[in-house]
Design brief:
This protein has about 250 residues and is an alpha+beta fold. Strands 2-3-4-6-5 form a five-stranded mixed beta barrel. It has a five-stranded mixed β-barrel with strand order 7-8-9-11-10. It starts with about 20 loop residues before the first helix and ends with a strand. Strand 10 and strand 11 form a beta hairpin. It has two domains: about 80 residues, OB fold (Dihydrolipoamide Acetyltransferase, E2P), CATH 2.40.50; about 100 residues, no CATH class.
Length: about 250
């Protein structure tokens, strides 16, 4: 169609007419293709910027069952004595979902128990999601366990996370996108951990306590899921490192 001056009208879409003018159809097709490619590139860029969780996962196909000691240090841990001169192992513990295992640990602290559960693993780190704790006969001799070894005072940079999600319950289980989930886990009794950018005795992962070796509470909220620098004493408990953090020395880096 042309107007009185002889110029052709530009095509336009009319809702009650099923046929779309060819120039508009071509524009929409090009727009949709470009939009889909743009969203794909944006998704790739965002995902590539996330830390690689590696093989971190809950090992549902495996079952953990061992005899050892339950201790509160101050979070529940399960300690298995070494055999034939080998060093013992200390496992961090969690309950089902976003919960810790304080009731089971408090009822059996210092006792020899059989612990059953599911491993939550990230590399050579293992946490046990506890299914059942069964106390053994009181007459059984308790295993000989090593005392914590002080590794001195350290200033470390890194991030405070909840242990269960970082071990593999969530992927990647760290960063600001995970902060709300971490808050729920820590409130429920899952132990906090510090993931350091540097190493102490070849390790960059620490069970976190306050500077006196006690439980941490709401004071963590300000620093959770942020990259910080903080000072504290480090202890080695079998194969697990414990960071007694002095949050008064903490400084947010980003």
């Amino acid at each position: 169609m042309t107007d009185k001056s002889g110029a052709a009208d530009e095509p336009f879409f009319v809702g009650y007419i099923s046929k779309v003018p060819k120039p508009l159809a071509t524009f929409l097709l090009v727009f949709m293709v470009c939009f889909a490619l743009g969203m794909g590139l944006a998704a790739f860029a965002l995902s590539s910027g996330q830390p690689d969780p590696g093989d971190a996962a809950i090992r549902w196909g495996q079952r953990f069952e061992q005899s050892g000691m339950l201790e509160l240090r101050p979070y529940p841990v399960f300690r298995v004595a070494g055999e034939n001169g080998e060093a013992g192992r200390t496992y961090m513990l969690s309950g089902q979902g976003k919960r810790g295992v304080f009731p089971q640990a408090e009822a059996n602290s210092g006792k020899l128990v059989t612990l059953r559960g599911v491993p939550v693993q990230r590399g050579d780190l293992t946490m046990i999601q506890v299914g059942r704790v069964q106390a053994q006969n009181d007459a059984v001799n308790l295993p000989s366990l090593s005392e914590p070894v002080s590794l001195g005072r350290w200033r470390l940079t890194g991030e405070i996370c909840d242990g269960k999600c970082y071990f593999g319950a969530m992927r990647p289980g760290r960063g600001l996108a995970h902060k709300a989930c971490a808050e729920f886990c820590l409130t429920g009794g899952v132990p906090p951990v510090f993931v350091s950018s540097g190493e102490v005795e070849g390790r960059n992962f620490f069970l976190l306590t306050n500077k006196d070796g006690g439980l941490l509470g709401d004071e963590l909220d300000r620093y959770l899921a942020l990259f910080i620098e903080v000072e504290g004493d480090v202890e080695r408990l079998d194969d697990l490192l414990v960071f007694k953090v002095d949050l008064e020395s903490a400084r947010i880096l980003r």
